[in-house]
Type I phosphodiesterase / nucleotide pyrophosphatase
Amino acid sequence: MKMKRTALTEKIAVIGVDGFEPRLAKKFLDQGKMPNLQKFIDKGSCRDDLVLLGAMPTVTPTLWTTLSTGAYPGTHGITCFFGHNHGQLDSLVYNLDSRRCKAEPLWNILAEEADKKTLVWHWPGSSWPVTSDSPNLHVVEGTQPQTINTGIAGVDISKIVVASDKFEEAQFLPNTSTITPGAGCIIENVEELLEDDGESSYLRAAISSGAKVIKNIVTCEEENEIHVLAKMIADTVKSPIKEAVGWAKAPAVAKEFTLTLGKGLERRPALLLQNEQGVYDTVEVYKSKKDLEPLVTIEGGKSAYDVVDTIKNDEGETILCNRNYHVLTIKPDGSEVTMLIGMAMDVSRDDLFHPKSLYKEVIDHIGYVPNRPVINGANEILVDQVFIPTWDHYCEWQADCLTYFMKNNKYDVIYSHLHNVDNGGHLFWHFAKHQEKWNNNEEAYQGFIERMYIQTDNYLGRFLPYLDEGWTIIVTSDHGLSCQENLGVELGEAGGITTPVMEELGYAKIITDENGNHEFDWANTKAVASRGNYIYLNLIGRDEHGIVDPKDQYDLETQIISDLYSYRDPKTGKRVVALAMRNKDAVIIGLSGPECGDIIYFTEESYNVIHADSLSTQDGYADTSLSPIFVAAGPGIKQGYKTERVIRQVDLAPTMAFLSGVRLPAQSEGSPVHQILTEEI
């Protein structure tokens, strides 16, 4: 098929940053802390407030799919992290799967019809598996939003290490907890069973196992709050510090301790070394005492990234892996060391690279895919010394990859996604607002939020030079972030069926068996709250256990909507629901159709949980908002221009299509943002 019109640019890169929002960005811009974003604004076009009107619900796979197709969620069908399992009201279907998308992505048109070499890089919205046979289309990941290979490559979980000369013997404590508020001791309550790592357990299970259908009935606040409490999965290693004995190469004053890896069966000897002043300040980790060179050398308070080693997987196979080492503290007299060793990632996993040769090119020219940080967000030391620096490292690696492709003309179009801001928002922003609950330092956490935005600005700065190399660059996001200000009312959960409010209102009833498993009493359940924004009636003829006669559906919907608006937070007396409407009426916000509930609702400001359950126009704590961001610069874009137009997420794909001279995606519902283009439409 021929091009539809003359292209305004030959190269386009979308620099997507998950959770990156305009209100905070404006705050830091005004303070001079985001100079690179300011340069994009000066060289390009945007609204004065930088706002992109987000589609809804404000959840990751839904909105990245909207950005790539130009279609509203009700049209493309990806309406939450999980989809509706038709007929089964107590289960969900994992939605980060391109085969569940009903709309055409622009990247297929660019690759197939415009003959443009196109890269889709870790885009968590209907990008994987690949949906085009064109050799021009290359795709990396897309099965989850965290970091590349997170869902498939982990072969060993993180280790918390405490070495001390007070320990008589070594201990390996699997799956222990580090819920320690404030900046106190890193290790506490080490024998508690750990529940989660900041990414909901249901989601982690779906990603790692490849499960399509999951069942997650959320019956209380504590269950629903797990994903924001930032607990971390880790084994605890306690190791005695002793005089170094039997080493092929060790200074006379060196001390030794042992790191236990894997399932507690693999060991790495470590030396504790003095500096010239006689202060113990360095750890060397070896494969064995016979080796002359260490695997890694790390000073106290420092980190080493992508340390390559081997580990045995669950089948007993030896796997080459990389992981991060963080030396948190070393006592000057060498009496104690605390460390965090990151999860180990199998470096052979090219499963989610298409073509697989792309993976080899990346590791040959840039290096192995780095680990994501898995830490306890309630602990300021871990956020400060591990989480943010690890994302610094990942951002550098990803920028190295993408700019390598741009510099060497590997692609004409790049779609890219980075998850640093959203990951931080879920992990620790609650601890900034609710310091009275977790005994945290609000000022410190506000500083962490600022550092994540400065980190993002540094990342954006890596792409600025390419504006002068003929690239049109669009900086955007899926949604913003705003931590929940009023805790305790959970009407919906993006990955589960939430029961407390629906039980309280009399529409659902839960029974618990002798093993503590929760099930619906279907004979007494008229409706369920499924995922983050949807309520389904238990209809006869449609749902397996239906009890509601379809002729009563309209009246029951009316009653439920009325009760939602009347529902008040028991603590504050305030209304919890901002908007509730029938499926047929939700077409005006792009959320009608079979993948949306019989009733669609959104929470009031201050009751949203980070994002997902809120209107995309809402604001929140500490100058945050739920809106995504939009700035465009380069060929085809007016320079130094501000538009008053409301730019919608559905407009991104049509604008890119017009810039590239190709037709709009078949199901696109947006239009080109012609006000910012150098050529009039």
User: Anything to note?
Assistant: Residues 245 and 256 are 8 Å apart (CA to CA). The radius of gyration is 26 Å. The first helix runs from residue 22 to 30. The first strand starts at residue 11 and ends at 17.
